[in-house]
Amino acid sequence: MAETPILDALIHTVERLRVPLHVPGHKQGRVLPSAFATWLGQAAKLDLTELPGLDNLHQPDGCILASQQLTAAYYGSDQCLYSVNGSSAGIMAAILACAEGRKVLFAGPFHQSAWRGLVLADAEPVFLPSRFHAEQCRHEPPSPEHLRQALAAHPDTAAVFVTSPTYHGVVADVATLAEICHSEGVPLIVDEAHGAHFGLIEAFPKHSVAAGADVVIQSVHKMLPGLTQTAWVHVTGDLVSAATLERWLLTLQTTSPSYLLLASLDVAQAWLREEGPRVATETMNVLAEAGLLPSEMPFADPLRHWLPTGSLELSMTIRSALQESGIYVELADGLGVLSVFGFGITRAEVSRYLSVVNRVLQQTPTSRATGFVPYELEQMGTLAIRPRRAFGKPAEWVPVQKALGRVSAGMVTPYPPGVPVVVPGQRLDEPCVQMLTALSDMHSDIHGMRDGLIAVLQDETT
Ligand SMILES: Cc1ncc(COP(=O)(O)O)c(C=O)c1O
Predict the structure, then answer these.
(1) In terms of pLDDT, which residue wins out, 282 or 440?
(2) Where do you find CATH 3.90.100.10 in the chain?
């Protein structure tokens, strides 16, 4: 049996506890409203606080530390830190620890928590060009050559940030990217929020700790059997101070972390050693039999299925048809339909999914909408104003044509492909205004623009 120090300590405490004279106020479920208590069941008993023997996430030296060490040993990282505030907190902490007041080079699409990290750290982003694959309706993995060139052009880079896998399941060549970063003495942060299962069996892509990344952030709740909000952060090597990262990570979390979430992290690390490999192999067999394994392996996550449509209408038709059959997908947008098969999916479920999707596709004359504009995310360069200074400043809405030379107050994101073309703090130059005008003339769905208007800073000097 794999060790589960947090769960063991909780059970030990629950078995001894007779009179709870402490928070939380629901008293192990005793005074929980019954409509909720019925669903929560026995779990309410485990929702305790920092009682003797239960350690403290903010200064761990008992069961929490032991569990974190087990997770670090499993992945081969130097230190693993638990987060009850998702990968979001881990990503912000990583940027704060690596790049406070300095430059971060972004290779490919990034989650909004990375942008929040830049704001908190008063750091400056530099964007690598990111090629959009029109047929696949998703971004290609970052190019090592682009990274090499960008590091040469920005020798003051404090950290490189990569998302792998992306939401759409694209896996980067992290080993090569790490090698390039390390040759310049720069740490590589990998947002592996969707890839905590990587490396579990041979058939999966290697995880980014094994690939040599310095900081790896993984949501346990996304792909492993973990409760929502659970995540962990790995630190390896000496380019990043684990102590500094831990301080930031704790600063970004509650002082009352849920023991249900901590226990969930604990049992997830045990699951990886015990049932995990068998369940993973069974899942892969089911997907292989159904012909659903991606051809791009190992540069694609086999547990998610991306169906590119390039058409909002088609995506919505597929989603509705699936929903009528009781099947709920992760996402459907103008680019395609994303299904997270995850672990434990059965043959019957896969064939039910396929029969609905195939029926809709057969009834659809063309699988691609007209007017779909694939594009390459151009180098956005450095910004006129750092994200921190642009954050929350008074803005005004002006017609795009009148925005030339002004500084953007928000993000502008056309759907498809759902990747920002303008970020807060960016000065709107001629090519940018032309591109925004063309996009708005096409009546694309553009977040951050309203009726041809764009938000710019009222006063960029303050
Ligand atoms: C690529 C990526 N990174 C990070 C996050 C944030 O993860 P969490 O929900 O665990 O905070 C998400 C959330 O969807 C994501 O898609």
Answers:
(1) 282
(2) 387-457
Residues 333 and 335: their CA atoms lie apart, in Å, by 5
What's the helix, strand, coil split of the chain in %, to 5? 35, 15, 45
CA distance 172 to 179: 13
Residue 412 has pLDDT above 90, yes or no: no
Tokens, residue 113? 């928590």
**CA 363 to centroid of ligand 1, rounded, Å:** 35
Q: In whole angstroms, how far apart are CA 83 and each of 50, 77, 342?
A: 16, 16, 21
User: 212 C-alpha vs ligand 1 centroid, how far in Å?
Assistant: 21
Ligand 1 atom 7 nearest Cα: 87
Q: Which CATH superfamily is domain 279-363 in?
A: Aspartate Aminotransferase, domain 1 (3.90.1150.10)
Atom of ligand 1 nearest to the CA of 191: 3
- CATH among 3.40.630.30, 2.60.40.10, 3.40.640.10, 3.40.50.20 for 5-273: 3.40.640.10
117 C-alpha vs ligand 1 centroid, how far in Å?
A: 13
Measured by CA distance, the residue closest to atom 1 of ligand 1 is 111
For residue 296, give the 3-state DSSP assignment. coil
Closest atom of ligand 1 relative to the 163 alpha carbon: 1
Query: What separation in Å is there between the alpha carbon of 170 and the centre of ligand 1?
Result: 15
Q: Which one of 81, 84, 91, 113 would you pick to mutate in the ligand 1 pocket, going by the greatest count of ligand atoms within 8 A of its CB?
A: 113
pLDDT digits (tens, 9 = 90+) for 86-145: 999 999 999 999 999 999 999 998 898 999 999 999 999 998 888 878 788 888 899 999
Percentage of the chain beyond pLDDT 90 is 77
- Closest residue CA from atom 15 of ligand 1: 111
- Whole-number mean pLDDT of the chain? 92
Residue nearest to atom 9 of ligand 1 (CA): 86
Rounded to the nearest whole angstrom, what is the distance from the C-alpha of residue 111 to the centroid of ligand 1? 6
Q: Which two tokens stand for residue 117?
A: 């990290």
**CA–CA separation, 201 vs 403, rounded Å?**
52
Q: Which two tokens stand for residue 44?
A: 């309410």
Q: In what order do the strands lie in the sheet with 331-332?
A: 304-308, 336-340, 331-332
pLDDT in tens, 182-229: 999 999 999 999 999 999 999 999 999 999 999 999 999 999 999 999
Quick one: pLDDT at residue 373?
A: 44
> Ligand 1 pocket: which residues have CB below 6 Å?
86-88, 91, 111, 113, 163, 167, 191, 193-194, 219, 231
Give the Å distance between the CA of 85 and the centre of ligand 1: 11
Bridge pairing between strands 413-415 and 445-447: antiparallel
